[in-house]
Design goal:
The complex is a heterodimer of chains A (about 425) and B (about 200). With about 425 residues, chain A is α/β, with parallel strands linked by helices. Chain A has eleven helices and 25 strands. In chain B, helix 3 crosses helix 4 and helix 3 packs across helix 5. Classes of the chains: A alpha/beta (about 425), B mainly alpha (about 200). The interface between A and B is large, with 55 and 43 residues.
Chain lengths: ~425, ~200
């Protein structure tokens, strides 16, 4: 955190009164409440699909509530559509957006990371200071379980995940483009649950399409920790008929990577050589959710109330997006967006002493199978007995350019729904 | 000195908050607004779609909204995206959602169209005015929808679906429309979409 950032924040804060007064009275570890609360306040941790949506819709639902969004990145980069950056079909710039739209709704966007949550005193630690809240929404996304793959932690700079869209996406695209024709690209799929169930298979399509059109003597090997394609299986397998350069191996969990020999090892001891590796590591809830004891017995994911997204472990703390589990919904951007809205409305009702309405999420999920065609799965849900229950899941009957056009329409709309 | 200013500023903002009382009705306070949030990811807040493929449903006539939802849910208007959501709408209360979207102020699509295509579409539209009338606003009494200001991509897609008999297949009331569509070349369909999209 820089002085400039804090000054900027104070200047835009409804009440900058407290810094000098409170800082003097605090211990050395915490310098103070750098933005004392003037009225009711909700702090949102994480400005991704869930958190950005929640911050915006909190302000839409009740503009008298102060909303502070903590997000270290100055720009949002969309994971959906980022597989198209690998194949060169789209640029990363087209998936990158600022937070100015949220500011125009009166959200106080603060580009720093929350370092700890203190639920008993309703405070979020930020660097050497803290922020008070009435209610907290935690939307930290996923963290990687580096330790699950031998050699991975020490090789993070060379063995890329590109599973959080941004610099790694661009670098992996560069590695793919630089791979000599005749090379082997190895893509590993982590065991469920992980962010974006169809994402690895869409990525396989994009890499295979790219190799087929630009490096016809090259090969893609997909090593899947799961027993079958996790999502849209029949549609992906039909799409892969166009890719004889794609070799799919189910139940091949990668447990070791060695960048010096350019080799991965499966749990059965099989070794696979690569020219380019894309290792998507096993995942759990974002670190702050784990440290704040929001995860369940599995130490990976957060259980929440299905109507309000309030943590079952800590009062006044809500968790949304990929960090949650226990609902019959996928870890998708569209679901995180839906959770952001539902949670925002619930939090505003609770702060106003009203009973939150029962609202169900929805999920629309497109996957690109080449440069111009897509497939989709759509899920509708209802609330039944206080729980989210699926009404129906529908798949496209095949792949087509029409679904790809609809995918572009979906992205155009939902990026605005989150950030504009 | 700076501390004093901050203290005064802080006190002022505190008193403003205390004096302001209940917040004025916001965009989510309208009846049905909470149920409609499931729609806004694609159709935009209040149904004001920003994209080229999703229709604007802000200000939509309730009779047409209900017909569309019922047709989608029953599979008469095949759509893997809309069939599940239509079932959600029927469970959530189609009348509530129809009233909500009908009450939302409608803006024409922000998607730009080519002036040449609009002019060609205007000339070609003479074959459409019998039903959709000169203004393009349709005729609710005959079940003819308003086409004005919809995204051109959405309008073109619907015409192509009619042409291929993939929208409401087998519906006798649409037989003449589909025969007409079959006679229209695809590039003229794009011109017609541009023209109706440009109407206000």
């Amino acid at each position: 955190m820089t002085r400039l950032t804090r000054r900027e924040f104070l200047r835009t804060s409804a009440s900058g009164a407290g810094l000098a007064l409170l800082a003097a009275g605090c211990g050395p570890a915490i310098k103070g409440d750098f933005a004392p609360k003037a009225g009711r306040r909700v702090v949102v941790i994480g400005g991704g699909w869930g958190g950005a949506t929640a911050a915006k819709y909190l302000r839409l639902a009740d503009a008298s509530i102060e909303v502070v969004l903590l997000e270290p990145n100055r720009q949002f980069v969309s994971c959906p559509f980022s597989n198209l950056v690998l194949s060169g079909v789209r640029s990363i710039d087209g998936l990158t957006f600022g937070y100015g739209g949220l500011r125009s709704h009166g959200v106080r966007v603060y580009h720093d990371a929350a370092s700890a949550i203190e639920p008993d005193v309703r405070r979020v630690r930020v660097g050497e200071g803290y922020l008070e809240y009435d209610r907290l929404i935690v939307s930290p996304g996923v963290e990687f379980q580096w330790e699950q793959v031998d050699g991975l932690a020490a090789a993070q700079d060379r063995v890329l995940h590109a599973w959080k869209a941004g610099p790694q996406t661009v670098e992996l695209a560069r590695q793919l483009a630089a791979m000599p024709d005749g090379g082997v690209f190895v893509l590993t799929v982590p065991p469920v649950a992980y962010r974006c169930p169809p994402g690895p298979y869409e990525r396989a399509c994009q890499v295979a399409w790219s190799l087929k059109t630009k490096k016809p003597r090259s090969k893609l090997v997909v090593l899947d920790a799961n027993a079958n394609v996790v999502s849209k299986a029949a549609l992906f397998r039909a799409a892969w008929k166009d890719y004889p350069n794609l070799e799919y191996r189910a139940s091949n969990k990668v447990v070791k990577v060695d960048p010096s020999t350019r080799e991965v090892t499966t749990e059965f001891g099989d070794r696979v050589k690569y020219d380019v590796i894309n290792l998507i590591p096993p995942q759990r809830a974002g670190t702050i959710a784990v440290q704040a004891d929001l995860v369940g017995a599995d130490k990976r994911w957060c259980e929440v109330n299905h109507l309000t997204y309030e943590s079952v472990k800590h009062k006044n703390v809500h968790v949304i997006g990929d960090s949650t589990i226990g609902l019959p919904v996928p870890k998708s951007g569209n679901i995180a967006n839906a959770m952001g809205k539902i949670c925002a409305v619930a939090v505003v009702h609770l702060l106003n002493g009203k009973e939150p309405p029962a609202m169900a999420p929805g999920n629309t999920c497109y996957s690109w199978v080449n440069d111009h065609e897509a497939i989709a799965v759509v899920n509708a849900y209802r609330i039944e007995g206080g729980k989210v229950v699926q009404i129906e899941q529908k798949l496209t009957p095949g792949q087509s350019a029409q679904w790809a056009q609809n995918a572009v329409g979906w992205a155009t709309s939902i990026w605005q729904d989150m950030l504009a | 000195m700076r501390t004093i200013f901050r203290l005064i500023g802080g006190s002022l903002s505190l008193s403003v908050v205390l004096a302001s009382g209940p917040a004025a009705a916001g965009p989510l306070d309208a009846p049905g607004a909470a149920k409609a949030l499931a729609c806004s990811a694609c159709h935009g807040l209040g149904g004001q779609s920003p994209s080229n493929t999703m229709p604007v449903i802000a200000g939509i006539a309730p009779w047409y909204f209900k017909k569309a939802i019922e047709d989608y849910a029953a599979g008469r208007r095949p759509s893997p995206e809309m069939e599940p959501y239509a079932k959600y709408v029927l469970e959530a209360g189609v009348d509530d959602l129809a009233s909500y979207f009908a009450s939302q102020p409608r803006q024409p699509t922000a998607v730009r169209v080519d002036a040449g295509a609009v002019e060609r579409g205007r000339v070609a539209s003479q074959q459409c005015v019998v039903c959709h009338v000169e203004s393009g606003k349709g005729d609710p009494a005959k079940g003819i929808p308003d086409l004005r200001g919809q995204p051109p991509g959405y309008l073109a897609n619907q015409m192509l679906l009619f042409k291929a008999d993939r929208r409401s297949p087998g519906d006798a009331t649409l037989k003449a429309l589909k025969e007409l569509m079959k006679s229209i070349p695809d590039d003229q369909i794009a011109d017609l979409a541009a023209y109706y999209s440009s109407l206000r």
